Amino acid sequence: MKKIVIILFIALFFLSNAYADSDNIEINGIDFQLPPKYQGGELDDDEYKLENIFSIRCIDDNIITSIGLWAEEKELYEDININNHPVRHFSQYNKHVNGNHSHAYFASGNSVYEIAWTGEKINSDIENLIKNTPKSEINDDNFYNALDESYDIYKQQKIDKLNQDAQYNYLEAQYQSKLKQQEYNEEQINKILYTYYLNA
After folding, report:
1. What is each CA distance from 154 to 1, 71, 115, 134, 161, in whole angstroms?
2. 104 near 122, Cβ under 8 Å?
3. pTM, rounded to two decimals
4. Cα Rg of the chain, angstroms
């Protein structure tokens, strides 16, 4: 019985190692073969994540928010092509990982993907992940223009939100002032405040 348990343990050990060396994940119909150092994460819908170390996701439905923050905070920025895939790479210091963190946005087929990892440069593992996906059906100019437009929309949304917050603060100050003077139209003020919260 003891020998059987030992044999099973050894078999499981080798099987787990074999699995770790060829860990494939599927995101939006595209297969990604993860190198060992990026394995062991969780796959949820169209996103794979390994703590704050590494992630891959399809951002077709969320390009504006996905690229906006990192485009704004970037310290390093480059547009490159990896094996017929247009790629935009951002890198910046991230206090959560106590070091540099990178985001690469690339096209494969008709979709856009984001790979995030700890590090300042595109290493060979990241390059191979991008290289081994189907070639992009989006030409380089259209891809980069779409990312630029998404960032412009993100910036405008931030400005609109700041203006909305400023308007709310002004109305709130008016409301508090009129509360003291008993000269306010409560129904009108409440309607304005309700509209603000509804659109926030």
Report:
1. 64, 10, 20, 29, 11
2. yes
3. 0.66
4. 24
Q: What is the pLDDT of residues 72-131, one digit of tens each?
A: 666 678 999 999 999 999 888 877 767 888 999 999 999 999 999 999 999 999 999 999
Distance CA 103, CA 90 (A): 5
Same structural domain, 177 and 85: no
Q: Is 39 helix (H, G, I), strand (E, B) or coil?
A: coil
What is the residue range of 109's domain? 2-138
Q: What is the pLDDT of residue 17?
A: 38
Give the CB-side neighbour count of residue 49, counting CA atoms within 13 A: 8
Count of structural domains, the chain: 2
Same domain flag for 78 and 176: no
Residue 146 placed within a domain: no
| Low-confidence winner among 47-61, 103-117, 144-158 (lowest mean pLDDT) | 144-158
Residues 129 and 32 in one domain: yes
Q: How many CB atoms lie within 10 A of CB 164?
A: 13
Q: Are residues 122 and 187 in the same domain?
A: no
Does residue 127 sit in the same domain as residue 163? no
